[in-house]
């Protein structure tokens, strides 16, 4: 084999390893790491405030408010705050009608979730701040199970587990569900071995004294949860704290959502970089494996495909041509399919492409502050 062919083969192998790293090799490494046990403590359970932001979530509000009423009944001392980000539907009116349950803070217009959460955190009086999303429903034992983990004084933040509903409605929903099950298992292993590297907005909590200051342009879920690690405390995951959310079923909605999230995530990464560099070696390894490698997955797939094409050309131009034609046909069939393996593969490729597009967008100085609910949810 010629030197150039060896180079392309090496590039192909490294690209495959990089794409599989967050979902195969990284979990294998985590499983052999020792367990870092939590230390039980004593004393009264801390007080809590639950916060969420909403924009045009009128369709979700009846179920959300009923869910909050159930939580308040189970935990009477719970404070609940909501921020309305200039909704043009009945979201604010529905929340305001439950003034004895939820304290509503109205925004001046579209200012974004990060701005809204900061407004709510400034008003909250609980020892622990619990963050969730407007379209998420929490299981009845959520509050007690979350607060119990704060008995360990070294624990500064606690995540819950997100369970998606509507998995079988489309290939996009099925891929999203599979991805999130893998993500939840990764967080379980990260928690067992020390720290989880960042939270999503479905359900997480921190001690109020650790809540940081940050600009409105960053991803508040990542920024706030990482502040726990930067303060020298543990960020852990509670398997028995369950949040439930409906999956996005349409490819267009999911693509736009992933571009938006990735753009804000990379922008947030840039903002947090000085503090990330001061983390210990294990946490830096976790962060790079679960986040940075994944953000560039689209680039690794493209690089691997080009290396495979170059190898095929060196063997036989006709073989390369046939391979390209087969790939194009399969891609076209997958785009048209409503379900099945081909549709799932196409949705995975689309997800990687959207994530990489968002990263490139952020690298060019662009980010996203406001959001819109997915119509296909």
Automatic annotation (TrEMBL):
Gene Ontology molecular function terms on file: glycosyltransferase activity; kinase activity
Keyword annotations from UniProtKB, A to Z: Glycosyltransferase, Kinase, Membrane, Transferase, Transmembrane, Transmembrane helix
Residue stretches spanning the membrane: 6-26, 292-312, 318-335, 342-360
Annotated Glycosyltransferase 2-like domain residues: 49-211
Domain of life: Bacteria
InterPro entries: Glyco_trans_2-like, Nucleotide-diphossugar_trans
Gene3D superfamilies (UniProt xref): Spore Coat Polysaccharide Biosynthesis Protein SpsA, Chain A (3.90.550.10)
UniProt family annotation: Belongs to the glycosyltransferase 2 family.
Name listed for the protein in its UniProt record: Histidine kinase
Lineage, broadest ranks: Bacteria, Pseudomonadati, Pseudomonadota, Alphaproteobacteria, Sphingomonadales
């Amino acid at each position: 084999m010629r030197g150039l062919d060896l180079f392309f083969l090496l590039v192909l192998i490294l690209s495959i390893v990089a794409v599989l790293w967050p979902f195969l090799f990284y979990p294998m490494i985590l499983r052999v790491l020792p367990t870092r046990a939590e230390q039980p403590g004593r004393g009264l359970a801390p007080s809590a405030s639950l916060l969420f932001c909403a924009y045009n979530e009128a369709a979700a509000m009846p179920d959300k408010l009923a869910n909050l009423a159930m939580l308040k009944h189970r935990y009477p001392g719970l404070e609940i705050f909501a921020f309305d980000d200039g909704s043009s539907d009945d979201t604010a009116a529905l929340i305001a009608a439950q003034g004895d349950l939820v304290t509503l803070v109205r925004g001046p217009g579209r200012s974004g979730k990060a701005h809204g959460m900061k407004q709510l955190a400034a008003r909250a009086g609980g020892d622990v701040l619990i963050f969730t999303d407007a379209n998420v429903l929490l299981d009845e034992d959520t509050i007690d199970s979350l607060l119990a983990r704060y008995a360990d004084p070294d624990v500064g933040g606690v995540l819950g587990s997100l369970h998606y509903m509507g998995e079988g409605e489309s290939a996009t929903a099925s891929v999203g569900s599979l991805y999130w099950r893998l993500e939840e298992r990764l967080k379980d292993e990260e928690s067992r071995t020390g720290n989880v590297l960042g939270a999503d907005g479905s359900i997480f909590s921190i001690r109020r004294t650790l809540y940081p200051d940050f600009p409105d342009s960053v991803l508040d879920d990542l920024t706030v949860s990482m502040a726990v690690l930067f303060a020298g405390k543990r960020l852990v995951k509670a398997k028995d704290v369950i949040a439930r959310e409906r999956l996005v079923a349409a490819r267009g909605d999911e693509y736009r959502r992933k571009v938006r999230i990735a753009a804000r995530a990379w922008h947030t990464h840039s903002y947090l970089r000085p503090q990330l560099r001061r983390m210990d070696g294990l946490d830096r390894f976790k962060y790079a494996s679960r986040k940075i490698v994944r953000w560039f997955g689209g680039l690794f797939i493209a690089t691997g495909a080009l290396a495979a094409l170059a190898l095929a050309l060196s063997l036989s131009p006709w073989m390369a041509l046939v391979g390209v034609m087969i790939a194009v046909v399969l891609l076209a069939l997958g785009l048209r399919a409503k379900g099945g393996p081909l549709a799932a593969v196409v949705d995975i490729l689309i997800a990687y492409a959207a994530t990489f597009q968002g990263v490139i967008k952020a690298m060019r100085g662009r980010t996203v502050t406001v959001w819109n609910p997915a119509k296909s949810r």
